[in-house]
Amino acid sequence: MRKVELSMNEDYKYQIIKELSDHDGNIYSAAVKLNCSVRTVYRYIAKYKTNGKAAFIHKNKHRKPVNSRPQELTETIIRLYKDKYYDCNFCHFQDLLSERENIRISYASLYNLMTANDLSSPKIQRRTRKERAKKKYLLEHPKIDGKQAEDKAVYQLALEDAHPKQERCKYFGEEIQMDASSMNWFGDTCSYLHLSIDNATGIVTGAYFDCQETLSGYYHTFLQIIQNYGIPHRFKTDNRTVFNYESSNRSDDNKDVLTQFGYACRQLGVTIETTSVSQAKGMIERANQSFQGRLAQELRLAGITAIEEANRYLCEVFIPSFNKHFASDLNEYHSVFEPLDDHQKINLTLAVISPRKFDNGSSIKYKNKYYQLHDSEDRLVCFKKGTECLVIKSLDENLYASVGDSVYALIQVPKNKKTSEEFDVPVKKDKPRKVYIPPMSHPWKRATFLRAQEKAHKHHQFGF
User: Fold this and answer.
1) What residues contact residue 183 under an 8 Å CB cut-off, 6+ apart?
2) From CA 47, how far away is CA 55, in angstroms rounded?
3) Which pLDDT value is given to residue 77?
4) Which residues pair with 81 in a beta bridge?
5) Confidence grade of residue 448 (pLDDT, cut at 50, 70, 90)
6) What residues have CB less than 8 Å from 84, skipping those under 6 apart?
7) Quick one: DSSP state of residue 338?
8) What is the pLDDT of residues 303-336, one digit of tens each?
């Protein structure tokens, strides 16, 4: 005879009806205990006399629910995570299932499914991390009781998780946090993602991939901010020399580049606040983690391996989707961005500057190439040997040179002539072309830049 197993409630009901039926107890008292009518008690007695103990088993027991998830779908989700989306966190995996695989599943169901199959998210929560640390500690120290293991696990995790909570800014554009993070975002080569995020709304305002963490990378991020929103009030960054002046004994081109981002910000009216404490700019640090947990996987799924494709995908696809998912509603905040539509001013302000001196041939050497200065009528302008100038590389890669308060175009001196007067057919010379020369109000006049640089040196040396 098959053994009948009842749940606690079923067994309680069985014991009362059995006692009532076998010993002729008070049927009204039984109805009160079971919280049902007398008529229902009579039905229970009839079922008991017919089927015995088995009469109290619920009819849906061992029956699969109609709305349950098919086993084939469960296996498909597990296989997709192991084979295709193995490096995604569970929240991102849920979005990808909906967008790419047309599979709808709640986060709670997905989380339970993953944990039941011993699959962990790369971004597990603090509580889960503590529980797993406790379990690991107990396995490594079997003689330690649970309370000591819990104290050890909590203490080990407290140092990395402790940081004070801060209030966000009130206005959109009041503070933009900037930073760069490095990893193998696409392909097998490490690259750097320059990222900026608004503190008040959580909107990612700019992002740019580069081979290194460079001034050019932050310039392109700044350009996206200006074009899409305007000029912000303040940047909050780390203490890298791109933002904060530090003395350097190097003699290469990068030595004088270190203070140029700050000088460009001053020309546009933006203040810079630097800090060495990562928690002080926690929003950009958290955004970097979110991008590392989502962007690299989406670039891999999109088959992107080149930096140009990655930058295009970043601006056109990923950032709009990211802001839609995580940023606050922009209509709820007042903007303090200042509009700037002067493209030429932006192009000349976000420039890389390098000092040079003229040689005997009235030319300068830049990036292993020789250049001469020409005016707006494409006429050669000569200077004495030793004359100092600033080479201005604008954001659109055009080259200029600033001597005193004047600006000239840089024209490369070819190593060899294009034609020979002795052996080639004479070619009619073109008329002198009009060369664009920035106006006298351009921001990188040599005297102005040197005064600002000298002031930065004094501020760093004496602290005032």
Assistant:
1) 190, 191, 292, 296
2) 6
3) 92
4) none
5) low
6) 301
7) B
8) 998 999 999 999 999 999 999 999 999 889 999 9
